[in-house]
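Internal ticket #5521
Category: modeling
Description: The requester needs a full-assembly model to guide mutagenesis choices. All entity lines are attached below as received. Residue total reported by intake: 604.
Assigned to: D.W.
Attached entities:
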Amino acid sequence: MKVDIKNLKFAYNGRDVLRNLDLSIDKNEFIGIVGPNGSGKTTLLKNIGGVLEPGEGEIYFDGKLLRSFSSKQIATMVGALQQENHVGFDFTVREVVEMGRFPHLSRFERHDADDDRAVEWALSVTDLESFSDRYVNQLSGGEKQRVFLALALAQEPDLLLLDEPTSSLDINYQIKIMETVCGLKQEGITVIAAIHDLNLAAHYADRIAMMSEGRIKVLGEPCQVLTQRNISETFGVDVEVKNSDPRDLVHIFPRRTASIG
Amino acid sequence: MSQDRARPKAAFLVLFLLLGLAVIVGVVLGPVNIPIVDSFFILVNELPGVEIGNLPGNYQTIIVGLRLPRVLVGMLVGSALAVSGTVMQGIFRNPLATPYILGVSAGGSAGAATSVVMGFTSNLALPLGALIGALLAVSLVYRISYTRGSTSTYTLILAGVALSSLFSAVTTAMIFLAGPYEQHRVLFWMMGGLWRSSWRWFQVLLPVVAVGAGIIFSWGRDLNALSLGESAAAHLGVKPEMVKKILLGLATAISAVAVSAAGTIGFIGLVIPHILRMILGPNHMILLPAAALGGGIFLIYTDVMAKMVMQPVEMPVGVITAFFGAPFFLYLLRQKIVGGRMR
């Protein structure tokens, strides 16, 4: 799905969080959003997901106005994965993933074969088939995050919004989640992900949008955006950026100021 | 593992059997000893199109005029309390939430006490006062918690607790001001019981509880989604504020009517949803109708005990529900702590 954001403004309690933000995302693109805390990444994702209503400006899905859709219709097109997830009761993995069919079902409708197929697909993509009868609350953080990714996939979305999906995970689960999400591009899913870890963003995103104070400051391929100058201007830190051939991968290292030992 | 859950079909079969048995037990057992055969024929005689002659008239009055409506009112009151408890626990994602948490019982008591002390002597005055008090308390709690288009569940609970203590103070003041006869009436009502059950009460309760619970059942999936947190639910197309408003409103309405019919009967709204969730799992599509049956069954049986334990004196059924509910709840709590996980 193609996403166009035009002149988006959003304010929380009178404080501007997004200021005249413009961004266009192509179908099947994986776009990484980086930026310091409080730069508006989560707010942007929530506006795109239709959970927050923009103060001004418009968002278009394949040329159609986002606010012309109902919240249930939006949920059949957009799935989201948040950083922290919690299940209130002892639901099993399958029960939680089945909740992803909510937007596809009317109030009195029962699950049909299509719903079951979507749930099975979501469980298999996230490698959770053998977990399906386990209680979500008894899983590790990384496993739980995969359950919530499966929940979003069971919605059969065209667009996936990830809000720092791997920040609290160890490197094994970080890679598992990112690899799974990258594989979804083949399924025709567009991905917009706010990512704290610049190296992770550089490694997986097709393009990177660097945000600062509610605007997109730089937009482009990772090696163009993640330069020493951009990073130091936006985050206020001094880093060393190394490019490695042949894929033009960027590696970012902090410069140590404290003496070692 | 989910293997430790009961299969819903089997569970509903058992619940329906228990309910049928409860109705029979509730009709057959009572301070006046009526032979089972007579009770049976009197009940069958009530079915449409059946006419059995030669039935003892005084037994007929006891069974059809007193015991049957009492059993049916008990069933509806128990259902209403258990369903609204399930809703409250689901919305607050807290297994300790009860229908009384938003001030239904404190408001109801204050309203009942006020109506009695103000000298209204009609039979309708006390339950009507209770209903008004309950709805007033809960709407105040909503008003206070509602800011900028949303209600925080924490604020709701805290406001409910604070306003409950205010309304309790009103009740205490009213009882203090009342004469001995009025004091007796208010205290009797507050203990909770099904003494006033009648066909009239059944006619009032049936539509309210049936329609209220029916609508609540159809929102089970929304309640499931809400247990993932409001933000995750919103991404599934759920409107958290609307779900909260509609479900808390309906749960309050049915529990307020139940309270005005039977006073404040504790522990049903807390214990029944909790036990059924342990047996059937947390899926509200199953849990809500199961709670309706379970609450009804529990109150019918405990009311029979209330009638029988200290014959010919009747105990307030609230004493019995607490007597069974509290230790059982503590036992479950203990099991869970020992078992290593909460919820």
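Resolution: model delivered.
Comment from assignee: The radius of gyration of chain A is 19 Å.
Ticket closed.
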